[in-house]
Amino acid sequence: MFAAVLVASGVMVISSRNPVHSVLFLILAFFNAAGLFLLLGAEFLAMSLVIVYVGAVAVLFLFVVMMLDINTAELKDGILQYLPTGAVIGILLLVELVALFGSWGFAPDVEAIIQSQTPPIAQATNTEALGMLIYTKYVFLFQASGLILLVAMVGSILLTLRRREGVRHQKIADQVARTTETVKLHKVQTGRGI
C-alpha cells in the first residue's frame, strides 16, 4: 500500500500544474517513503525523512513564495480551492496511520528489554549504532554539514530580501561618521535647570 501510494503521489508531484498541489503530494510521498523505511526496520531514516524533509518542503514552499513574490492575500482567498485536495491527502494519511498503528504490537518481554544494559555496538539497534557512529567518529563532519545548512539558509534569506518603500532602515555608516558637533554639552549649576 505504501509503495503504490508513493508512486502515485510521485507521479502527481510532477504532473500537477498547481505548485501548492505539488507540495502537498510531495509531503504525501515523503510520508509513504517513511512508512516503507519503518517496514524495513530503518527507524532513524523514517523519522529523519519525516522531520527533515517534510519540514524542508514547508521551508522550500515558503522560499518559493518569497522568491516569486506571490500575493499571500490571494493564496488565503483561494484556500477553499485547495481544500478538497488537502482533505483527500489528509484522509489518505489518516487511513495509513490507522492501518500502521492497528497492526502495532509490543514484544512480550518489553520490561526486560527496557531494564537491560546497553548492548555493545554490534548488538545495538540501527538508531543506536548510527547515533554512536555519528556523534563519535564523524562528529566534525556532522557539525560541518549543520554549518553548511546554516549558510544556505542565510543565503536564501539574503536572496529574497527586498527593499520596501516607506520603511526606515539603519544607516550604520552615517552613525559612525557623526562628529561630536551634533552633541552640545551644557554646564548646569547644581539646583538650577537649563
CATH domain class name of the largest domain: Mainly Alpha
Residue runs with pLDDT of under 50 for 5 or more positions: none
Number of helices: 9
Class by helix and strand content?
A: mainly alpha
- Note the overall shape: extended
Query: What is the CATH architecture descriptor of the largest domain?
Result: Up-down Bundle
**Alpha carbon gap, first and last residue:** 83 Å
The arrangement of helices and strands along the chain is HHHHHHHHH
User: Roughly what percent helix?
Assistant: 55-70%
Question: Can you describe what's shown?
Answer:
The protein is 69% helix and 0% strand. The chain is mainly alpha-helical and 194 residues long. The chain has 2 domains: 1-103, NADH-ubiquinone/plastoquinone oxidoreductase chain 6, subunit NuoJ (Four Helix Bundle (Hemerythrin (Met), subunit A)); 126-164. The longest helix has 26 residues, at 43-68. It is extended, with a radius of gyration of 27 Å.
